[in-house]
Task: structure prediction
Amino acid sequence: MLHVLTREDAVALIKEKTPRFQPKTETIASADCLGRILAADLTAGEDLPAFDRATVDGYAVNAADTFGAGAAIPAQLEVIGEILMGEAAGFSLRRGQCARISTGGMLPPGADAAVMIEHTEQADGLCLVYRSVAPFENVNRRGDDLAAGAIALKKGTRLNSAAIGILAALGIDEVTVFQKPVIAVISTGDELVPGKPAPGQIRDVNTSLLAAAIREAGCEARIYGAVADQRAAIEQAVKACVREADAVLISGGSSAGARDLTVGIIDTLGTAYFHGVAMKPGKPTIFGVIDGKPVFGLPGHPLAAYFVFRLIVSPLLRARMALPPERPLTVGTLAENIPSNHGREEFLCVRLREDRSVVPLHTKSGVISVLSEATGFLRIPRNAEGLAQGTTVEVYAL
Ligand code: AMP
Ligand code: MG
Result:
């Protein structure tokens, strides 16, 4: 039975019909983990820093020796040596003694603080300290940054440059991450041609657009390419993609016309569960399962295909990588009225101005340049009577 569903029902049905589309993990080299999602909490195996380190250039001291020191009455300490970078001091401080130290240098035994060079003067083997320091002032204590056993990075973290810095600091060279689902892309349409289109022909936008969106979502794209509107050719493409990928996207041919072959093909090779979602753009959207794998029929219009990817396909992909539902990028104030929609949930490209006002970008169906003008998109609920100027709206990133 094929009928039009709300987007929420469609997303729920997709999850229900794809119980095998579950997160899987793999262990990879930290050098290759940029952008991947951590599959387990990552614990510090050692203290960071591993020793007490000075955070200033100056003198390692025993703080008590500086108590009461001031501009008029400096503390006088005996300089017994210098601590070199990358080395443990070969001596300990006794009371009344200090040693030259640089930022990041290891405090010697007997020292519990560092005095900034600017607050000292050196004369005749003595160091005059013009300002007192408290114990552990100007020092990163062992384990201050991360103590051994502490959680350094939480499960679900997208490993960015900052996270990779933490891995390096802890000497972690392998991480367990969620596998990237492989998503195949097939474009259909007699009008799609490689190279320069003749009159009536067009370039294939969806293959590139959807492959990039798949990668942006943290998945791997398997590009099949463009196929003519011929049942046998599309069936062959779908079969190959179902074999090689975890999910398949077929763009074009998803409406209900005689030339629209997608739903029949999905229902022949497997089972089609819905045909039509009450959203705009994106009504001609199909979902089915072939050999246990989710297969989507997306509208041919690139903008519609993009929105269906973001709003119908992407929730499934996020769940597969154990990511929470997408959150809005920001909120803003609607700069003008948006008239009522037609019982369908609507998604509209918007530009966010610097003053946080949100300008809707109205376009005709079939137009794509709006994507490059837009900061993001907003959602108009299915039953809303449009949205009034001045309304606070959530803007999702493009
Ligand atoms: P369809 O869903 O096949 O009826 O296509 C709807 C519209 O999208 C038509 O104007 C198609 O030419 C266009 N279209 C379909 N597939 C693509 C594609 N891969 N790239 C660009 N436009 C497409
Ligand atoms: Mg077509």
The radius of gyration is 31 Å. The pocket of adenosine monophosphate (ligand 1) is lined by residues 187, 189, 191-192, 202, 204-206, 251-255, 299-302, 366 (CB under 6 Å). The mean pLDDT is 96.
